[in-house]
Amino acid sequence: MNDLIRVVIADDQGMVRAGFRSLLSDEADLEVVGEAANGEEAVEIVTRLAPDVTLMDIRMPVLDGIAATRQLVQGGVDTKVLVLTTFALDEYVFEALRAGASGFLLKDAPAEELADAIRTIAAGDSLLDPAVTRSVVDAFVRRGATSASPRRDPKLDLLTPRELEVLGLLARGRSNQDIASTLFVSEGTTKTHVSNVLMKLDLRDRVQAVVFAYENAVVVAGETDPL
Where is the HTH luxR-type domain positioned along the sequence (predicted)? Predict the structure, then answer.
């Protein structure tokens, strides 16, 4: 990617922001253009600067990262939000995805992984850290285990059997390459299936597909992973 990817870092700890800025300064294609110490500042700065990617801590004072993400998405601000979490099992990560985040990553991820994550979502893809995905999904399923059966969205009937398989793999945080390998099809065919799933279910991106799949029990806790 020739153009610089502009990044805003939102975290209430100054040392964390400085650490991320230092890590990203070594990446020639990434530029940190602003910082925010709380969610309210994040909304103001990101709205004003419209960075390509916003690194968003979930737990911040004044306005938390979930509410800040929701405000940015609902306000139509042209940025992709990458949620950062300290623990793999974070009860708020799922809510952040529902609010419109494009992905999430552990704060202690290696520098190159953070940089690659920023590039991934800046390019329009979604990022779901597999370790965090499993923990978040497990927590979501446990939380819903005591409630009534989920209401099945009638839009699921629009999917073909193969598209339903693809949705199930998306729900596990799989890349197009993984899905293609599992289903023995080309990556081009996989991309077509993913596009059709998102279009038919009226979803913005792969992250929304994950949320939709678990809310509609397309994937059930305890199922054997096909890969």
Answer: 152-217
